[in-house]
Amino acid sequence: MDLIICVLGLLALAVEGIRCQGVYAPPSVRIIHSGHACNVEEERHTERVYTIREGETLELTCLVTGHPRPQIRWTKTAGSVSDRFHDSSVFNQTLNIAKILRTQGGRYYCKAENGLGSPAIKSIRVDVYYLDEPTVTVHQSIGEAKEQFYYERTVFLRCVANSNPPVRYSWHRGREVLTQGSDKGVEIYEPFFTQGETKILKLKNLRPQDYANYSCVASVRNVCAILDRSVIFKLTNKTASPSIKLLVEDPIVVNPGQTVSLVCITTGGEPPPILTWICSNDSLPQRSVVKGGTLTLPAITSDEAGVYSCVASNSVGNPAKKSTTIVVRGEKT
Length: 333
Known about the structure:
Elements: H1 2-21, E1 25-35, E2 37-44, E3 47-53, E4 58-67, E5 71-76, E6 94-97, E7 106-113, E8 120-131, E9 135-146, E10 150-160, E11 163-164, E12 168-173, E13 176-178, E14 186-189, E15 198-203, E16 213-219, E17 229-234, E18 240-246, E19 252-254, E20 260-270, E21 274-279, E22 289-291, E23 294-297, E24 306-313, E25 320-328
Parallel strand pairs: 3-8, 19-25
Antiparallel strand pairs: 1-4, 2-3, 4-6, 5-7, 7-8, 8-11, 9-10, 10-15, 12-13, 12-16, 14-15, 16-17, 18-20, 20-23, 21-24, 22-23, 24-25
């Protein structure tokens, strides 16, 4: 009898302890969203998809239950150490990323654990939508002479825009919408190896009416309120790839401390080419000055020796490039 009374006393003490400390329970977790979501798809294959426009604020909250109170950790791509965040929000209940970038899209995991049972983990995939300005590049080909009178000239206009979701392109000549089959002199196609990434407009055997303003419109169908973007290229009978000339010797041998000026001029190209300077040392020296086609290196040092190149581009054909090597004599000791 005494034994039964003792056991009952111990049970009473245990119940009283539970009342004081709360019921021990393993963790459970749920992710809710706020911030600027375009769309959130509910559970699908054990994850949710959160769509957001680049530059908006991502805000995810991890709601947890359990006793003792679980510790929370946000991770990305299944919690790989290399992909853990480097800010204080990693251990917070709410994950906040202001002005989210396209590179920050992916699958985010909330993990909660309190030492009881297995950790609770829920995930949500973040899909960042964006649409960059489209660019047009132009390539020309000259066919064989026809009846000894003229050469057949064909022009290819290639439109490219980085986007998520995939972009749709449309071509216009002036106010006219160009479609496949609408003009015998026009062909519109997507290269097989870049399906969906670009749209090429082919102008076969150029005619007078083909010299016009062409616009490429890139669209993601207004998802996330992203507006269409367009670019215009003016095709004329003078359209040509760039050509340049360097007004310097090669190589250039100088003394330390000497000021060096490299001059690059355009000798052809329509539209007028844009000139830039690059260096074999990855970047131009901090003290260098670029004005038009002239690059000035004041008080040059041996560290600034290398190959310097002038590059001209105008979206027609391949960029033109001319280079020279600067050799800096050894400093006297």
